[in-house]
Every structure is written in C-alpha cells, then in structure tokens.
Design brief:
497 residues; binds manganese (II) ion; Aminopeptidase; nine-stranded mixed beta sheet; alpha/beta; binds ligand BES; 2 domains; Leucine Aminopeptidase, subunit E, domain 1; 20 strands; six-stranded mixed beta sheet; binds zinc ion
Length: 497
C-alpha cells in the first residue's frame, strides 16, 4: 500500500472514499462537520434518524453525498469524545480499514488521523493508522491452490493532518510505520508457514535472501560448525530430528565501527512436539509457531536496515526441530553447554532454553551494549499475561524500562516479572549444574532464571512472547509481535547515540 500525508478540505478530495469520525451523542469530528456543512446538514440528518450511533467501531457508508467531491463518505464511530484512548482509536481505524477492504475501493482519504487521542501525538496516530491498514489487508494465501476471491485493501491511502499539523513528524511516522509493517509481514509469513516447509534450512535461506535485499551481513553455520563451537545444549535438541540445525548470524552495521552492538537472540524451534516428553495432540499444530522469536528478529532487522538506523545490531538465531526419535534427548540426560555449565534435561519439552543458552553465550563475543532474547518460551506466560502483554524479565532495570517504554510507544506492550534470586533454587539438580525445569510455580520466571545463568557478562532482557506471537482459534495466525516494540526500542537508541 502507498501512503501520503495530506492536509486539505475533506469535501474537496477527489477520491473513492473520505473517512471521517463521528462521536457518540451525534457529535461530529472536525472533518465530519465540514462535510456536513458542505452537504447542508445531510450527515447530521442521518445521525438524527439513528442510522449510526457513533459507538466505537461502528461504520456507515454513504454514497454520492451532495456537495462532496469524493464518491463515498465513510462515517466511523469513535465512542465518547472525552476519553478517546488508544484502544478506541485503534478499534475505529480497524473498523474503517475493514469497511474499505469490504467496499473494494482503490484509494481513500482518511481523516481519523487528525483526531486527538489521549496521551498521544499526531506521529502516533499516523504510525498506528499505517500499521492497522497493513494488518487489515494481510492475508496468508500462498498455501491455497487457487487464489481465494477475498478482497484486497485499497492501493493508496492519504492520511490527513490538520492544516497546521507537523508534516515532517507525520511523514517520518508513516515511513517508520511502513518499515515496521513490512517487518511484521515477514515475521507473520514465516510464522504462518507450515513446519514441513519452514524448516531450519528454510529460515537460513530466508535470512540469506534478506541479506541480499537489504545489505545485512548474513552468515549461516551448519551442524559441523555448531559442534566445533561446542554448543552441546543446542545440539542435544537438534539431534532428535532428521532436519539439520542452523545457527544464523545477521549484522546491521549502521553505527560507528567499534560501537557496541545491540544483540537480538530469537528462538527458532520450527516445530516443537515436546520431544520424548511429548505434548498432547490437541493444538499441537500451533507449535509450528515456536520459531516466532526467530521470525521477529528477522522482521526487526529488515526494518532496521530499511530505516538505515545509525546503530550496530546483531541477530542470532539458533534453529532446529524438537522431535522424539532414537537419537532424541531423554529425561535425565546431562548436556554440556558452550559456557561449560552442565544441564540435566528433566523435561525435553523445555527445549527453548536449551537452544537459547548457547546462543546467549555466543553473544558474549560481541561485547554487546545489550542483549534481548525473544522466545515463545512458556505456556505459563500465557496464563499470567494472556494474549495482551509480552512477558519481560531483565538483569538490568534501565534496559527493562527502555523496553517497557518502547512497548507503550509502539502499542506492543510488555510487562515485567521479577527475576529475584529466590527463584533460582527451583533449578537445583542433583546431577548437573542445573536442571532445565523449575516445577509448576512461576514457570515463566524460572525459565528466565535459567537463561540468566548465561547472561552474567552483559545487560540482558528476555521477552516471553508465548501469548502474543500468534492468535489461536478461528483467527489463527501470527501477529508479527514484538517487531513494533523492538523497532521502537532500537530507533530510540539510535536517536540517542
Ligand atoms: N514452546 C513451548 C512454550 C509454549 C507452550 C508456547 C504453549 C505457547 C503455547 C515451550 O517449548 C514449552 O514446551 N515449554 C514448557 C516448559 C515446561 C516443560 C517447563 C511449557 O510451557 O509447558
Ligand atoms: Mn517445548
Ligand atoms: Zn518450545
């Protein structure tokens, strides 16, 4: 989709559709009022008759409105004007995009962006509009033998800023929104691909292709090289499968030579059966999404490269399958990590931490400014935070604060859980330096405690995206999260450098 930022009178736009907001109690937004005046009370009449109530997310499409150049006017409900918050704005924009897609118009001029939202500025409105427009027109149809006859979104969207609005800030926000949306699209596509096609080899090939497109430096290590490095924990998971593992390294060198990089580490389990500690059959298909951390690293690096952020960023992706076989990890097995520490594998389904720990040790060689790992790590996180917030745990409070703020700014929120010493006890093993599980209580925290034993040399944060990386049920599909959070985090760091 193409976006432009425009200020101009809503009744004079030559477009298939102008989109204007309506509040509850028949209150018109500025743009709706101008349309209504040009149409001599036509809109107010319709509202008086009760055809539309201004409730958040309601819509009404009007054709050939007198005095208005556009072919159509789409009224969109925003709820009560006094508390127009993030969610109401997003719900309204979502409904508007859906109506535009259903109508099949080729272009539209959206005036919702100039409506003030609590605590937010014009740039936020514009970025969210772009993200919601892309979200609303996303389809994953490449696995269907015939292209379904669903309608695509408009090709061109003009986003309105009030006459004295900050055009430069709005344009920058649209650019950032497009880069984030493209990164999310990549992350969603990879997540939605079935496990038989989206293998570790496929992920590595996608990373290489991304390198060619964007100029990112990409390196892929195979089983032999991973063995030579000594990543015994990662390999113990990989050896249960016939698909060979890969260790993917991506580098964006946008900063000064010698500037310490931010390292992103993404869990890339392309299918998690649980291994010998086999998962139950119900919904096991969703474990194809167990590589969404890896996908978010690729999506984020794509956005970072597109935006040419003046910052050094490294992506590390350990990727393999977790399957049961004659060569698979068994409960009670002891493995030796790249760090030298030993692990008793009490549950082969706690495999994410087994591949991440070696990648986290590998990250030390960059003397990183900060390391953030992203992983669909624990079912417990879904119980704690549901599908709204990503779990955040960190060994450095300032880094945690940065991520909390980035999540808020991007509307891709995370919430911090404690990483107190007290929880470490749960990982005690009689036979190795640590066990790979800490029992039922505080499962998300003990998983992070496990990782914390491999991150003592740098500032580190962990994002558990088990509840936020994809949706189940009828709307099953990857969400592209936390690409928006990560891009905001990195963009802010770049701006401050
Ligand atoms: N990939 C899963 C976590 C997961 C489960 C994400 C369900 C989303 C939905 C992870 O590898 C896993 O199996 N974790 C176990 C850990 C347990 C054995 C300590 C879990 O959460 O049950
Ligand atoms: Mn698992
Ligand atoms: Zn897993």
């Amino acid at each position: 989709m193409e976006y432009s930022i425009k200020s101009g009178s809503p009744e004079k736009q030559r477009t298939a559709c102008v989109v204007v907001g309506v509040f509850e109690n028949r209150k018109l937004s500025l743009a709706a009022r101008i349309i209504d005046q040009a149409a001599q009370g036509y809109v107010a009449d319709i509202l008086r008759r009760g055809d539309m109530d201004g409730k958040t997310g309601s819509t009404l499409l009007l054709h050939s409105v007198p005095g208005v150049t556009a072919e159509r006017v789409l009224l969109v409900g925003l709820g009560r004007e006094r508390d127009l918050h993030d969610k109401a704005y997003r719900d309204a924009m979502h409904a508007a995009v859906k109506a535009l897609v259903d109508t099949g118009v080729g272009d539209a001029h959206v005036y919702l962006t100039e409506i003030p939202v609590k605590r937010r500025d014009l740039a936020w409105n514009v970025e969210q509009a772009v993200l919601l427009a892309e979200e609303g027109s996303y389809r994953f149809e490449r696995m269907k033998s015939k292209a379904p006859e669903t309608r695509k979104g408009p090709r061109r969207l003009a986003l309105a800023v009030a006459a004295r609005g900050d055009l430069a800030a709005a344009t920058a926000a649209a650019t950032r929104g497009r880069a984030i949306a493209a990164g999310m699209r990549l992350a969603k596509d990879l997540g939605n691909m079935p496990g038989n096609l989206c293998t570790p080899t496929y992920l590595a090939d996608q990373a290489k292709a991304l390198g060619k497109e964007t100029g990112l430096k990409v390196q892929v290590l195979g089983r032999g090289q991973i063995e030579k490095l000594g990543m015994g924990s990662f390999l113990s998971v990989a050896k249960g499968s016939d698909e060979p593992p890969r260790f993917i390294i991506l580098e964006h060198l946008g900063g000064q030579k010698g500037d310490k990089p931010v390292v992103l580490v993404g869990k890339g389990i392309t299918f998690d059966s649980g291994g010998i500690s086999l998962k139950p059959a119900a919904e096991m298909d969703e474990m194809k999404y167990d590589m969404c951390g890896a996908a978010s690293v690729l999506g984020t690096l794509q956005a970072v490269a597109t935006l040419q952020l003046p910052l050094n960023v490294v992506g590390l992706i350990p990727t393999c399958e977790n399957l049961p076989s004659g060569r698979a990890n068994k409960p009670g097995d002891v493995v030796t990590t790249l760090s030298g520490q030993t692990i008793e594998v009490l549950n082969t389904d706690a495999e994410g931490r087994l591949i991440l720990c070696d990648a986290l040790t590998y990250a030390e060689r960059y003397a990183p400014a900060a390391v953030v790992d992203i992983a669909t790590l624990t079912g417990a996180c879904v119980i704690a935070l549901g599908h709204v917030a990503t779990g955040l745990l960190a060994n450095h409070d300032a880094l945690a604060r940065e991520l909390l703020q980035a999540g808020d700014a991007a509307h891709d929120r995370c919430w911090q859980l404690p990483l107190w010493e007290d929880y470490q006890e749960q990982l005690k093993s009689n036979f190795a330096d640590m066990a790979n599980i800490g029992g039922r209580p505080a499962g998300t925290i003990t998983a992070a405690c496990f990782l914390s034993r491999f991150t003592e040399k740098y500032h580190w944060a962990h994002l558990d995206i088990a509840g936020t990386a994809w949706k189940g049920g009828k709307e099953k599909g990857a969400t592209g999260r936390p690409v928006p959070l990560l891009v905001h985090f990195l963009a802010k760091r770049a701006a401050q450098a």
